[in-house]
Design brief:
The complex is a heterodimer of chains A (429) and B (216).
Chain A lengths: L9 H8 L6 H6 L3 E6 L11 E5 L2 E7 L5 E5 L13 E2 L4 E2 L6 E2 L5 E3 L9 H4 L4 E2 L1 E4 L2 E5 L13 H4 L5 E8 L3 H8 L19 H4 L4 E6 L3 E9 L5 E9 L3 E8 L5 E16 L2 E10 L8 H11 L25 H6 L8 H10 L17 H18 L18 E5 L5 H4 L9
Antiparallel strand pairs in A: 1-11, 2-3, 3-4, 4-9, 5-6, 6-7, 7-8, 10-11, 12-18, 13-14, 14-15, 15-16, 15-19, 16-17, 17-18
Chain B lengths: L1 E2 L3 E10 L2 E10 L3 E8 L5 E16 L2 E9 L9 H11 L25 H6 L8 H10 L17 H18 L18 E5 L5 H4 L9
Antiparallel strand pairs in B: 1-2, 2-3, 3-4, 3-7, 4-5, 5-6
Classes of the chains: A alpha+beta (429), B alpha+beta (216).
Chain lengths: 429, 216
């Protein structure tokens, strides 16, 4: 086996991971709508302001009296007092230091500490980013005003609430480590082997999937093919939507056959800053026929390790975390699963966070199973170059991705996945 | 605002039905504030009336000890232990408000000063209990060292701007081996703060002339 791809240089690694204002990857990520928080974190009109740290910027989100969300600088422009303690009232956020009040567009609408008719009020602006709510997520755009893309329109955001669910988890490492794990089907034959010794699991029957990557206008899709002998092939088509979203399908169960709750799953890795990430985990019913009931959602989220009981109360942090080695159980690791860790995405966190805050990719040895990971890095680095020279990256225009969905299924012997899947890769919501 | 040999004196004027409510503050260099609380928030004379102040003493660049001074302005305003505790409690630093064995407040940055959003809607502006705890929320919330290059200052910030100017001038002076304000106690030892409502038309300097002289 030859090594097909070069690892990244230390300079490229810096270029593709750092997200603060003015950084190369930071500029790229700011060209897209990014999740800022869950809609449910701002439960009511005039409810408590919410701290949001995004791409290294400290912000405050608030749902105003009209139910619309504002996302603004965390500090009052007057003397930089924290707006977190502000009063969310009468369509604006009022700083409690001197009473200055701002609407969700960042206009100063009241300046009660200054003489009436002051000209200062018209001059002072609070930094405010545009916001849109879609699919239970509050999205924001933090890039140049004249380059704002149309609002996000991923298929799952159009599914009704009865058929769609989004959760959020905190991950203690750089966003790219998470995204890489999401575009690496091969690791699921190992890290997510939760049935040691049971060789009927599809992903155990072939641990060396063949991987093909096909670039598209939104990023790429990649196809993994596992040889199932006389039954044919187990084929999974993943979507990578730039800059940091993965979509995969689960219509086939872990042991083959139809999954009881056919669905599409995905993640978006959203940098809090260079070294921490919020992962948005969405689930969407594959068709109208089988809805996502609370029981089904609980079962699904539990398997992935993030039902409310798995979280430290009042946070998006897992109880099984880096500080306690994810409660690894070495006996369980000998007899039950590959990692000794409970929860599919908890297993991922152990591996991804364990690489350190920003993985040093100059020390890697990548192989053919890393094809999709390497292709994603190439796309990101190309897009970074393109943005720097004034161009547009892939995946800005919803028409490039709105009709796209992932799929997985068995392909009978002799058949070609492209034919078998022909009708399945088009969005139905 | 008036510069003095010890720093400056500044007067805030608020119009009320009974006349002008004057508050005379002093800034004694480098980091002491003197203010008076003769009149309470409700407009009647405090019992006891007080002279209050703080000295902000750097522990290092990013932490501070605040010394909170309280002094009776007149012999009849005795500061009994009970009066002191009432006052300290209102400021947010009564006997039960600190983490035992420390000078740290239980209501602190790590718990968002136990802000109560319902209280904020119905009872007070911040939803935080304790006058100086409210200050800590705002000041600590700016971050360890506030980035003043991003400010927009208004006319209400006059005294702040003046203070910064004086400090910067003094820093320069000191670098050049010059002398500083408020080194000589003669400049500040007879000075006190005061607050009072004065009938409209009267000038504060005249009306408060006797009040502004130290008696201790």
């Amino acid at each position: 086996m030859t090594v097909f791809f070069n690892m990244l240089s230390a300079a490229e690694n810096e270029r593709v991971t750092r997200v603060g204002p003015g950084t190369p990857a930071g500029k790229l990520l700011r060209r897209y709508w990014q999740p800022a928080c869950l809609s449910s974190e701002l439960p009511e009109n005039d409810s408590a302001p919410l701290r949001v740290r995004l791409l290294g910027e400290d912000l405050i989100a608030f749902r105003d009296t009209e139910g619309k969300v504002g996302l603004v600088d965390a500090f009052c422009p007057h003397r930089r007092a924290p707006l977190f303690f502000g009063r969310n009232e009468e369509c604006g956020l009022r700083c409690v230091y001197h009473g200055w009040k701002f609407d969700r567009a960042g206009n100063c609408v009241d300046m009660p500490s200054e003489p009436a008719g002051t000209t200062l009020q018209a001059k002072v602006k609070l930094l405010a980013y545009p916001v849109v709510e879609r699919g239970g997520v509050v999205w924001t755009y933090m890039g140049p005003k004249d380059r704002i893309p149309p609002e996000p329109d991923y298929e799952w955001t159009r599914a009704p609430a009865s058929h769609r669910f989004v959760s959020k988890t905190f991950e203690n490492c750089n966003w790219l480590q998470g995204l890489e794990g999401g575009l690496d089907t091969t690791h699921s034959s190992f890290a997510h082997n939760n049935h040691l010794g049971d060789n009927s699991v599809l992903r155990q029957r072939d641990k060396r999937p063949q991987i093909e990557v096909e670039r598209t206008d939104y990023g790429y899709y990649y196809v993994s093919t596992r040889d199932m002998g006389e039954e044919g092939k187990y084929v999974r088509v993943y979507q990578y939507m730039m800059p940091a979203q993965q979509m995969r399908a689960a219509t086939v169960g872990w042991f083959g056959g139809k999954d009881e709750v056919p669905r599409m799953d995905g993640h978006i890795w959203v940098p809090i800053d260079d070294k921490t990430t919020h992962v948005y985990n969405w689930v969407c019913a594959y068709s109208e026929r089988i809805a996502l009931t609370p029981e089904r959602i609980h079962e699904h989220e539990s398997r992935f390790g993030r039902v409310p009981e798995d979280l430290i109360p009042g946070t998006f942090r897992l109880k099984r975390n880096q500080s306690n080695d994810y409660l690894i159980d070495r006996e369980m690791q000998k007899t039950q699963n590959y990692t000794g860790i409970v929860g599919i995405n908890t297993q991922d966190f152990a591996l991804q966070e364990g690489m350190g805050p920003i993985c040093d990719r100059s020390k890697e040895f990548v192989g053919s199973s890393d094809k999709a990971v390497v292709a994603m890095r190439r796309l990101l680095l190309e897009a970074i170059d393109s943005v720097e020279t004034g161009g547009d990256p892939r995946g800005l225009d919803p028409s490039s991705y709105r009709g796209v969905r992932p799929h997985d299924n068995m392909v009978p012997p002799g058949a070609e996945w492209r034919q078998t899947f022909a009708k399945e890769l088009a969005a139905k919501w | 605002m008036e510069r003095t040999d010890y720093g400056y004196c500044y007067v805030s004027t608020r119009k009320t039905d009974e006349g002008n409510y004057f508050r005379v503050y002093h800034y004694v260099m480098p980091a002491q504030q003197l203010r008076a609380s003769i009149i309470g928030y409700e407009g009647v004379r405090n019992k006891p009336a007080r002279l209050d102040g703080h000295i902000w003493v750097p522990i290092d660049d990013v932490t501070t000890h605040v010394y909170n001074v309280m002094c009776a302005p007149h012999p009849e305003d005795e500061l009994t232990p009970q009066a002191i505790e009432t006052r300290e409690k209102a400021a947010g630093r009564g006997k039960d408000d600190s983490i035992p064995g420390t000078f740290r407040l239980k209501r602190n940055q790590s718990n968002d000063y136990l802000i109560d959003r319902q209280m904020q809607k119905t009872q007070n502006f911040t939803g935080i209990v304790g006058v100086n705890t409210q200050d800590f929320a705002l000041q600590e919330g700016m971050g360890p060292i506030c980035d003043r290059s991003k400010e927009f200052l208004g006319s209400s910030d006059k005294a702040i701007v003046a203070l910064r100017r004086m400090l910067l001038e003094a820093v320069s002076n000191n670098e050049k081996g010059g002398t500083l304000r408020a080194l000589d106690p003669a400049t500040y030892r007879k000075v006190r703060a005061y607050d009072r409502v004065v009938p409209a038309g009267q000038e504060w300097r005249k009306a408060l002339e006797k009040d502004l002289v130290a008696i201790w």
